[in-house]
Amino acid sequence: MIKTIQKEKYEDFSITKKKFDLFISCVSFEKRSIGFFKKLDEIEIKSCLTFINKDIIENSKSFNNIFKKFKELIKKNKFSNKLIETTLENPSKIVLEIEKTLNEMNFDNTKEDFEILVDITAFPRGQLFTLLYYLFNSESIKFVDIIYISPFDYFPPLSYGYKRFLIPPYFEGPNSFKKSIALIIFTGLELDRAINLIQEIEPLFLILLNPEPGTIDVADKSRNIIDKIKSTQEISTKILDITANDPIKCKDEFNEILNIYQNFDFYVSVMGPKIEVFAVLLAYLEDPRFRIVYPIPMYYNTENYSNDCYEIYEFLISK
């Protein structure tokens, strides 16, 4: 079960709970990746587990500046912090390191008051699917607080080039696909990756989902991306709006789309708001009738990807 606790402007946000045993996060080249660390002086945390995707931040001046501030914040709050390097193409390492850390903390799964806080802001979507699946399905973990920080704006292109697509662990879908292949893309501001993913999968049918509601600027940019994607394709294409700020409503709308076009087998890629990741995960947990694919870029726009923190969402996973 997932429940939206609150959504507040960054400067007004105060987390519901004040004590956590473990805080899990990812630090990247975006300012918002350490936005929540600036609010940790109001809560008590026993231990931090912080991930860095070394293949993303290599030679990034922005990351170097942000990482310097991150270390200052850790020192100021006197947290026990374990820093783990990983890569985009190894989502499983996230889960393995969490389990290792819990063992080191002598985690007792009979204690329902063991509190875990996860800031998903800077986790790439391929890793995020695997991380959330683990949190939802681990018998050891009863409750998880989830934080997501949105920026004021993004500045496309967000990434460049295309390596290949990755199927995140746990999301292979059906054992075999017997129908014609359709591809659903939750579109965002990624043009190169979307076009290259379509070319690699070669679907018979394409569905482009436009995230609504959004800020006027981001919504305009997303629609512009959709128009550009459609202009490059000769295959049958359907463009639909989908709710992007409510995971339950988004999940229900997504399931309805799958039901309407059930004469296809589906590949699904989320390139839009990360709240849509929750929706697709929930749909998959209900019925794993589709395969999730994550397109890996050659590199990111690390110096001008987004601006500062705008809103904070807080969710609660409970079992």
CATH architecture of the largest domain: 3-Layer(aba) Sandwich
Number of domains: 2
Looking at CATH, which topology of the largest domain would you report?
Answer: Rossmann fold
Q: Secondary-structure element sequence?
A: EEEHHEHEHEEEEHEHEHEHEEEE
Strand order of the largest sheet: 1-16-6-5-2-3-4
**What class do helices, strands and sheet pairing give?**
alpha/beta
Radius of gyration: 19 Å
Can you tell me the overall shape?
Answer: globular
CATH class bucket of the largest domain: Alpha Beta
Distance between the termini: 6 Å
Please describe the biggest sheet, giving its number of strands, its sense, and whether it closes into a barrel.
Answer: 7 strands, mixed
**Annotation, overall tally of beta strands:** 16
Unreliable sequence segments: none
With helices defined by DSSP (H or I, 4 residues minimum), what is the helix count?
8
Query: Overall pLDDT, averaged?
Result: 92
Strand percentage = 25-35%
Helix content: 25-40%
